[in-house]
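I'll show a record.
***
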Amino acid sequence: MLQSNNEDKQILYNSIKRSVGNLMSGIPVFGMFSGSVADYLIKYIDPYVSAFTDEEGLDIEQLGDFAKEEINDKIEKFKMKYKKESKNNENKINF
């Protein structure tokens, strides 16, 4: 069954490579870096993907729930940082 595990990961990683390539191909300057960006992304998520795989393959429900939680957390942190920085910039502009 380990074969299934590796096949699921390979399918996911190929999908990521294709998606990043398609996304970045629209911007010629960045298009040449799509392979590097995809590889970086894959190296970043590999420990998480490995944590959500078992003998049966990728547990997409658990992985999806985890990804949603992480994304929401990142968005909230960004919003808080943006609000804080925009207030700091307003204070500097309005003497």
User: Anything to note?
Assistant: The chain has two domains: 1-58, 60-95. Helices lie at 2-25, 28-31, 34-51, 60-93. Residues 1-58 form one domain.
